[in-house]
Design brief:
The protein is α/β, with parallel strands linked by helices and 237 residues long. Helix content is 34%, strand content 30%.
């Protein structure tokens, strides 16, 4: 089942009198429960594309459908509601709130975005903290955790709203080699258990090696798209 469909997507930014074409005629499809990486040099357009998939920006032209919704139709309010119901985010610097415990950081989206009962919150949190191996650390604060532990908490927080899609921007950038692989293994386990699609914007070869579909961007275009097995599909899957 197709979760994301981009058809001739373009994005242009205006900075004073200078026009910058960040994305140029980009088309692709991503199925549900996929493990996908967008790769390319800085300025290639991958972060712009991730922001549009995350409904933080809109195409200048073309059509981008995410979970059956045309991103271009969302205003600020409806976009926030759609993100809260459909998308989780994982950041390279974790973005945990330092004044909240592990438990409270994971619970936070349920309090701020979704109207979830106390009993349901407790069930979800117990299940996710166990899944990421952080039950014993639930009362600690972020400054008491290692980098790998913080990223585990960030994964649990991204998944607590039961999103169809998780977007991760350089999620292993601040992790050592062994911890990065453990985190990636955990993400794949969560994908298999919850059928969540994970999409990464990354330079990290570890993520590229683990991704099942790889889109390579160059100068605002998808230069190549490959699935494991070596198939190359040009601009569209």
């Amino acid at each position: 089942m197709t979760l994301i469909s981009a058809v001739h997507v373009q994005k242009q930014y205006q900075t004073g009198e200078v026009s910058v074409q960040a994305l140029k005629d980009v088309s692709f499809e991503i199925d549900a429960a996929s493990f996908v990486a967008f790769v390319g040099p800085s300025g290639s357009g991958k972060t712009t594309l991730l922001n549009m998939i995350g409904c933080l920006d809109k195409p200048t032209d073309g059509t981008l459908m995410v979970a059956g919704t045309d991103v271009a139709t969302l205003d600020r309010k409806t976009g926030a509601a759609f993100r809260g119901d459909t998308i989780g985010f994982i950041f390279q610097d974790f973005n945990l709130l330092p004044v909240l415990t592990v438990y409270e950081n994971v619970e936070y989206p349920l309090l701020m975005v979704q109207n979830v009962s106390h009993g349901d919150r407790r069930q979800r949190l117990a299940a996710l903290l166990a899944a990421v191996g952080m039950t014993d650390q639930k009362d600690k604060y972020p400054d008491q955790l290692s980098g790998g532990q913080k990223q585990r908490v960030a994964i649990a927080r991204a998944l607590v709203t039961n999103p169809k899609l998780v977007l991760a921007d350089e999620p292993t950038a601040n992790l050592d080699h062994d911890t990065a692989y453990r985190v990636l293994d955990l993400m794949k386990k969560m994908r298999d258990e919850f059928r969540t699609t994970f999409i990464f914007s990354t330079h990290d070869p570890k993520i590229v090696n683990e991704a099942e579909t790889i889109f390579t961007l160059e100068d605002g275009r998808i230069d190549d798209a490959k699935t494991k097995g070596g198939d190359s599909h040009g601009q569209s899957l």
